Amino acid sequence: MTTAPHHLASVFVELAGGGAPGPPGVPTLLARLTERSRELLALRATAVTFSPGARDAPHVAASDADVCRLEQDAVAWREGPGPACRRTGTALGGTALTGAVARQRWPRYAPRALALGCTHTAALPIRGHSRPVGALVLLATRRTTLTGDLMALGQSLADFAAVTLLREHEVAAGRALAAQLEHALETRVVIEQAKGALTARHALSPDAAFAVLRGYARSHRRLLTDVAREVVEGRLDVPRPRT
Predict the structure, then answer these.
(1) How many structural domains compose the chain?
(2) Domain containing 102: what range?
(3) End-to-end CA distance of the chain, in Å?
(4) E strands, the chain, where?
(5) Mind listing the pLDDT tens digit for each residue in 1-46?
(6) What sections of 123-222 are H helices per DSSP?
(7) pLDDT bracket for residue 241 (50, 70, 90)
(8) C-beta neighbour count of 59 within 10 angstroms
(9) How confident is the model at residue 243 (pLDDT cuts 50, 70, 90)?
(10) CB-neighbour burial class of residue 36 (10 A; exposed 0-12, middle 13-18, buried 19+)
(11) Are residues 158 and 220 in the same domain?
(12) Is residue 76 within a helix (H) or strand (E), and if so which, with residue range?
C-alpha cells in the first residue's frame, strides 16, 4: 500500500477542518473520515461511531448508505466490531466474517456485512482525553489484506480525526451553553420589566408584583415568561389581587 505524500497531507488537512469556510461540524468531519479512510486504505467500506459523552447518543457515519444502516443497527444491537472496539478502547484485528468466531460473536452483524460484499473486518479506537469515544470500522473484501501497515495508517487517521472531532464537539457545546445563558438572561430581564410595570401600575412592592405575575400564570396555565412579555408590551393587564 503506497500513498503519495502530498495526497496524504491533503487528507490530514481536510480532517483538521481545512478546505471550507467556517467550522465543519461533527457530521461533516465524520463523513470526511469515512470517505478518506476508505479511499486511502482501498477498502470496500468504512464506518465510524462517535459518542463524546458517556450519555450521548452515538453519531454514525459510513462511506456507503447500506453500511451506514448496518452500523446504526449494530449500535442498537451493541454487536459488531464497532461497539466491541468502543467498549474496550483497543484495536480489533482483522476478523473473517465467514469464520465461526464472527458468527458466534455477531450473529446478526456478520450475515448482513457478508451480504454487502464484505468478507473481513477490523476496528480501530477513536480515543478521547480519558476514554474511547468511538471506533473506525474497516470492511474489506478478499482482495484486500488488513495488514499491520494498513491498520497503522487507519489508526493515525482515527487519532488525528479525534482531536478535531473533540474540538468541534466542545465548540458546539459552548455555543449551546451560550444560547441557554442568553435565553435565561432575556427571560430574567423581561420578568424584571414586568415586575416594574406592575409595581408602578398597582403600587405594589417588587415581591408582590412577582407574586401577582406568578399567580396569574399558574391560574391560567401559561408560561411565566409569556405573561411577563405581554405585560411589558401592554397587551395584558394583570389585575391587582383583591385584599
Answers:
(1) 2
(2) 5-175
(3) 87
(4) 45-50, 59-62, 92-96, 120-127, 132-140
(5) 555 555 666 766 677 666 555 567 788 888 988 998 999 899 999 9
(6) 148-202, 206-219
(7) low
(8) 18
(9) low
(10) buried
(11) no
(12) helix 65-77
CB neighbours (10 Å) of residue 93?
Answer: 12
pTM: 0.67
Question: Is 238 contained in some domain?
Answer: no
Residue that finishes a domain, picked among 148, 175, 202: 175
Residue 192 has pLDDT above 80, yes or no: yes
What is the spatial distance between Cα 197 and Cα 104, in angstroms, rounded to a whole number? 71
Q: Looking at the structure, tell me whether residues 123 and 210 fall in a common domain.
A: no
The answer to whether 89 touches 115, Cβ cutoff 8 Å, is no
96 and 208, same domain (yes or no): no
DSSP lists the bridge partners of residue 96 as: 120
Instruction: Phi first, then psi: give them for residue 242, nearest 5 degrees.
Output: -75, 140
What is the pLDDT at residue 21?
A: 55
Residue 179 dihedral angles phi and psi, to the nearest 5°: -65, -40
Q: How far apart are CA 34 and CA 62, in angstroms?
A: 6
Shared-domain flag, residues 37 and 124: yes
Q: Which three cell numbers stand for residue 121?
A: 473486518
Cα separation of 43 and 172, whole Å?
32
Provide the β-strand partners of residue 60. 49
Question: What count of Cα atoms within 13 Å lies in the side-chain half-sphere of residue 3?
Answer: 19
Of the candidates 103, 138, 108, 189, the residue with the CA atom closest to the CA atom of residue 33: 138
- Mean pLDDT score across all residues of the chain: 85
Distance of CA 107 to the CA centre of its chain: 28
